[in-house]
Amino acid sequence: MAMDSGVLDELVVIDPESTATYAHLFQGLADPTRLAILQHLASGEHRVRDLVDHLGFAQSTVSKHLSFLLECRLVVVRPAGRSSWYSLAEPVRLGALIAAAEALLQATGTRAELGAHLRRHRDAASTGVATG
Q: Alpha carbon 21 to chain centroid distance?
C-alpha cells in the first residue's frame, strides 16, 4: 500500500448486490411523501383510507408509496377482514437511522428534524420502555 497525500492507495472491492440493496433502502427514504407516510405510521397502524384522510394525499398516491415501502421492507401489512393495516416494520431501527441522519445533517451544517414520534421508538428502546 502506497501513501498518496495521506490516503491509502488500495483496491476497493464493491459488492454490486449489497450496493443495490442499500440504494433501494435509501430510495425508500428519498421521497418526501414516503417520509410523511413513515412519520405518520410511527404513531401506529393505519389503513390506506386513514393515511389519505390524515395526510391529504390521493388514495392512488398513498397506495403507490406504501407499495414501494413494502418492497423496501420499511413497512409491513396486516390483513384484517377486507382491510389492510400498515405499520413500521422496524420502528426502533428506523428511529435510530433517522437520528443518525439528523446527526449527520447537523454535523454538515443543516438543522432538520423529522417527527419526534420516530425518535420515541428509539428512545424507548434505549430506556427499556415499551411504545404502543
A: 14
| Three-point CA angle 57, 62, 63, nearest 5° | 150
Model pTM score: 0.80
Residue 32, CB-side half-sphere exposure with 13 Å CA sphere: 2
Buried b (16+ CB within 10 A) or exposed e, 8-46: eeeeeeeeeeeeeeeeeeeebbeeeebbbbbbbbbeeeb
pLDDT digits (tens, 9 = 90+) for 17-31: 999 999 999 999 999
The residue ranking higher by pLDDT, 4 or 37, is: 37
Containing structural domain, residue 66: 32-89
Residue that is written with C-alpha cell 451544517 in the block: 109
Angle at CA of residue 39, ends 71 and 54, nearest 5°: 100
At 45, which CATH number? 1.10.10.10
pLDDT at 40 > cutoff 90: yes
Domain count, the chain: 2
Residue 11 within a domain: no
Strands of the chain, DSSP E: 2-4, 7-9, 75-80, 83-88
Q: Is residue 23 part of a domain?
A: no
